[in-house]
Amino acid sequence: xxxxxxxxxxxxxxxxxxxxxxxxxxxxxxxxxxxxxxxxxxxxxxxxxxxxxxxxxxxxxxxxxxxxxxxxxxxxxxxxxxxxxxxxxxxxxxxxxxxxxxxxxxxxxxxxxxxxxxxxxxxxxxxxxxxxxxxxxxxxxxxxxxxxxxxxxxxxxxxxxxxxxxxxxxxxxxxxxxxxxxxxxxxxxxxxxxxxxxxxxxxxxxxxxxxxxxxxxxxxxxxxxxxxxxxxxxxxxxxxxxxxxxxxxxxxxxxxxxxxxxxxxxxxxxxxxxxxxxxxxxxxxxxxxxxxxxxxxxxxxxxxxxxxxxxxxxxxxxxxxxxxxxxxxxxxxxxxxxxxxxxxxxxxxxxxxxxxxxxxxxxxxxxxxxxxxxxxxxxxxxxxxxxxxxxxxxxxxxxxxxxx
Length: 404
Known about the structure:
Number of domains: 2
Shape: elongated
Helix content: 40-55%
Distance between the termini: 74 Å
Number of strands: 14
Oligomer: single chain
Strand content: 15-25%
CATH architecture of the largest domain: 3-Layer(aba) Sandwich
Low-confidence stretches: none
Radius of gyration: 25 Å
CATH class of the largest domain: Alpha Beta
Number of helices: 14
Largest sheet: 5 strands, parallel
Structural class: alpha/beta
């Protein structure tokens, strides 16, 4: 079976792990390997991946800037749902995987490849996310997961393999890394090794996108975000593209110590995992979107969204972005956003985000109805019948119990 594979598309970062994987694939499967490197805002220089791939004999090299597509077609639809996994996690790693998987499958079709490969380990969620995505888009694709096949089970063996095959090793990779990092435009995560004990607080050097709340400015910062049909389009009346807007909010939030999360979560593969997350812009957007929905969404529509949100978040976390049920829920969510337009004012201070103002031409908030002063639109006597009808089943139930 292995010998029948003709060409493989590898998700390639240019780092030690995927460089070793690249060479291992070439040797093990004796076929051509195509590399695909995606810029989704991880912050690393990605062009060096081109030279590394060339040095390893790769002829077809794809390096693509996917930041705008990532934010507009994946992050923003997720934000419309106010998605949080297990009540806290803004799904920064999870939401990036379907885009990478989709582009890998497209490149496989372009290049005539019959297999795809990734560098996810056999213990984590990413192997599931990538591979479920691959199969959803191409049911017949062959998938090669080196971490489940090879015998290079330690960092020492990886480095030995690299040295034996003249693969360059960055100096900082020769020692054992203190923790594993994953980054994109929405967030950066750190987990494993030095962070595995959930009792120990993460040290300050773990954080790279946010200042500590203690060291954030002593004066609050106020910003305004304009929304149009559920999506943010302006900050302080300045228009941005999707990726530019999230980048700007990352800078603003990071400077104010916003978006840190220390979470023990339940992985799809069965174990619990401790992660340290920084999502400054996403944390601001989550609060702002709920703020504009609070005055523009019908009560029952809002409550239905909130009931569906955990299911929607779990689908993304588990890798089912391309599933029919996620698409069905997305259609409902997107339909709900038709009138979610307006402006939210937020107060940012030492790690906290607080909605302090909201306005919309579609506002359902009526001062005339809620005022404590005299009004001409609400007859308080109507409440008596409403309350009696709501309480009817309780009164009947109580009457029956009294007869027993």
